Amino acid sequence: MPTGGGLLCGASGLALLLAATATHFWLQRRAPGGTASLGLWHACLGGHCRPQPGTPALWEATRVLMLLSVLTAAAGLALGLSVVASAARRVRARVAGITLLLAGLLALLGLAVYTAGTLSLLGPARTAWRFSWSYILGWVAVVLISSAGLFHLCAAAKDPSPESSEVAGA
Predict the structure, then answer these.
(1) Could you tell me the end-to-end alpha-carbon distance of the chain, in angstroms, rounded to an integer?
(2) How far apart, in Å, are the Cα atoms of 96 and each of 11, 78, 167?
(3) Against a cut of 0.90, is the pTM above it?
(4) Over the stretch 35-71, which tens digit does the pLDDT of each residue have?
(5) With contact defined as beta carbons under 8 Å apart, do 129 and 57 qualify?
(6) Strand blocks (E) in 46-119
(7) Are the CB atoms for 52 and 64 separated by under 8 Å?
(8) Inter-residue contact 18 to 67 (CB < 8 Å)
(9) CA atoms of 36 and 30, how far apart (whole Å)
(10) What is the rounded distance in angstroms from the CA atom of residue 102 to the CA atom of residue 96?
(11) Predicted pLDDT of residue 102
């Protein structure tokens, strides 16, 4: 059962999702003291970063959704890797695909909540701020992780081996 495309997309997506969640360049603007940036965890001005004081509830929700997405993507990738060594390949590939699709959905929800919350919180000042590369990495990770899930589901559907069917060994 070829799941190489699913594993490659899953690993790349997980790496990008980790980078997006950990870095502080979700929003960026030019400021008198240098460049200002905001992330999920820190606010930075001129290279000096501090934990965000008084984080809005929508950004807290984004943090939770992104962390859940990272954990779910890691679990899906581990399941995808176990497909190679397992006798019940079809079942494991299907579960890996569903897990990776769930991870993509969680990240999508996190990014959507962040987008809507940020635009409403910044109000008229939003024209000074720009979504930056960490935020964009999150969107690319959604595409890669969701693609990995679809690849695993397609591989499970096309697996012709009799030992991978759900009735084998029953």
Answers:
(1) 21
(2) 13, 8, 19
(3) no
(4) 888 888 988 887 788 887 777 888 899 999 999 999 9
(5) no
(6) 48-51
(7) no
(8) no
(9) 6
(10) 10
(11) 97
